[in-house]
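Structure in, sequence out. Go:
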């Protein structure tokens, strides 16, 4: 009986870890090698050190908030309890725009990968197939998605290892240190923050743990460490192979150096990473509408799934601009709210000293992103 209980806990932890880590590893991954060619490898490493530390801290803070908050709520509900109704309205707008933006980005690039794999010219074919499959899994809920994330994450790393081994003969260290224009040293901020952010899934993970919520902190830390390492490996691999010829979505640039079979594998790799995140983010957004806005389940599902596809059809199809907006602005707002909530539950001068610099970073990021969009 005791052995069975341990196995159940291990299984629960693995699914929770894969859900959070698998959701974080998403479409943002594919913008990173190209951005590296624009600002240089050392600049990217500094950004990962700083923003990686920032995201780990803020996610752990949110984990503490989640443990002090009743279940079956999402970010807006948390904010209402700890900061009041005025802050809840800000949170609702931020998280809804952010999650819609994230799933729009997944739909754009995931549909593109699927089109190439199917060999069809009409871009709507891949987008609609991607959308339909994702909508079905979002409908069935956390049990379905936790298993998809688990096997998806395993397959993800298998494919990454194969690409690494096949691409190794074309890898040149000189490609990592080539000179670049460095036109905009702040360019990595939004995309990296987007690529590392998974706070919206922490309440989901907490619920998955059931009575074993004490494991939440460790899961958060490990779940963030996995994407950071994966991203750095991906950046070194892609940039080391394609160098200055790295394309905006990474994979097209590899076609000049790798054979068609490897490119197909890379496309499958891209499709897998975007699809699992599309499902998890969609599930979270559905629960925001259901739990926090008290909208009926079926209507919550319809809104969650159909808004991204409608935005795509209206012409919002530049995924880099979308992830920059989400990373720089909506995630910045979420980060500030998380820090303010943590200050409420953990009062003291030390907490105030910690909160001030963290909030300042997010505010500066929001200002920069607004200026960037105005330009």
């Amino acid at each position: 009986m005791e052995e069975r209980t341990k196995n159940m806990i291990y299984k629960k932890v693995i699914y929770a870890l894969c859900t959070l880590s698998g959701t974080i590893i998403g479409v943002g991954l594919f913008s990173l090698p190209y951005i590296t060619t624009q600002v240089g490898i050392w600049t990217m490493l500094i950004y990962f050190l700083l923003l990686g530390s920032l995201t780990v801290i803020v996610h752990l803070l949110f984990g503490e908030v989640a443990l002090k908050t009743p279940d079956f709520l999402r970010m807006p509900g948390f904010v209402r309890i700890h900061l009041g109704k005025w802050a809840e309205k800000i949170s609702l707008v931020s998280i809804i725009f952010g999650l819609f933006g994230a799933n729009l980005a997944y739909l754009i690039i995931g549909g593109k990968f699927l089109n190439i794999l199917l060999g069809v010219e009409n871009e709507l074919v891949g987008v609609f197939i991607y959308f339909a499959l994702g909508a079905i899994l979002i409908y069935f809920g956390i049990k379905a998605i936790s298993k998809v994330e688990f096997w998806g994450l395993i397959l993800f790393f298998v494919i990454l290892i194969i690409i690494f081994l096949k691409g190794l003969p074309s890898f040149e260290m000189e490609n990592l240190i080539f000179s670049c224009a460095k036109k905009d040293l702040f360019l990595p901020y939004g995309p990296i923050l987007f690529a590392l952010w998974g706070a919206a899934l922490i309440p989901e993970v907490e619920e998955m743990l059931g009575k074993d919520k004490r494991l939440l902190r460790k899961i958060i830390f490990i779940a963030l460490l996995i994407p950071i390492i994966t991203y750095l490996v991906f950046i070194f691999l892609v940039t080391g192979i394609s160098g200055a010829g790295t394309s905006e979505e990474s994979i097209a640039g590899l076609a000049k150096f790798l054979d068609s079979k490897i490119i197909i594998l890379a496309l499958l790799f891209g499709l897998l990473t975007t699809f699992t995140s599309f499902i998890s983010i969609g599930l979270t957004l559905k629960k925001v509408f259901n739990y926090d806005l008290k909208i009926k389940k079926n209507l919550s599902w319809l809104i969650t799934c159909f808004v991204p596809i409608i935005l795509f059809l209206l012409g919002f199809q530049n995924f880099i601009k979308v992830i920059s907006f989400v990373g720089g602005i909506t995630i910045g707002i979420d980060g500030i709210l998380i820090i303010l909530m943590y200050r409420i539950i953990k009062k003291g001068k030390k907490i105030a000293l910690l909160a001030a610099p963290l909030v300042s970073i997010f505010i500066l990021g929001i200002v920069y992103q607004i200026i960037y969009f105005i330009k």
